[in-house]
Write a structure and sequence with these properties.
Blueprint (H helix, E strand, L loop, with lengths): L1 H9 L2 H17 L7 H25 L14 H5 L1 H6 L2 H7 L4 H12 L4 H8 L3 H18 L7 H16 L3 H7 E10 L11 E2 L1 H15 L4 E7 L2 E8 L2 E11 L2 E8 L12
Parallel strand pairs: 1-6
Antiparallel strand pairs: 1-2, 3-4, 4-5, 5-6
Helix pairs in contact: 1-2, 1-3, 2-3, 3-8, 7-9, 8-9, 10-11, 11-12
Amino acid sequence: MLFGIAYRMLGSVTDAEDIVQDAWLRWNDTTTPVREPRAYLARTVTNLSINRLRSVAVQRESYVGPWLPEPLVTTHDAADEVELAESISMALLVVLESLSPLERAVFVLKEVFGFSYVEIGQALGRAETAVRQVGRRARSHVEARRPRFESSPEVRRRVTEEFLNACLGGDINRVMEMLAPDVTAWTDGGGKVRAALRPMRGAEVVARWLVAMIDQGRAAWGFRPAEINGMPGLLITTVGGVDSVSAIDVTDGKISTIWLVRNPDKFKGVAHV
């Protein structure tokens, strides 16, 4: 639970693990009895995460190209739980980046982990009425921007598998057929590896980019289907390890969004798979 709060707050596996470690150290140093350990630890992790978000805000504003969350490899069982899959999806984590640290904290604690507004107010040192207002504002913002999973996990996996086969086969016409007309592809290289500095939009643009990219890397890359943040995706590997991680969203039977993480600093959540 503690890692889950921190990861959804920060979008970073590395930072989330650091936060949980810091919370453990504070717990270990506590000399007075704690009546409600779950609430105490959730409060500690949330406040540490808020502080971390504020400290990394400048770094993310100056980030080279689109900033995407660090990917996590998840299991089929976890992905089958639609609410859980949505709560860690790239789609939601990207939207959460547009919230303030306080809004993000209230949304994660209330909507994902089911804490009451009273508990959240106590954790954040704010009045229940104020927290309730923040929660309503955050939920409204997220609902207006978050794509909902409109296809079952089985349909998403089938469509993604067919799509990846078309990409690997270099069948650009089939690739275009499987892309939504307004599909968007985001790539995150962090200025460390080659990646598009702006989102790519439109079926033809995205299809040509995908087929060309795979063709250029075919001799050096290996391709493995995987569940990424509760969504169908792909691990692209080289002899040295992970090269890229992709998550794919399917809407009405078409590929609607592609997220491709290439920044090598963001592979902690997939490094041992």
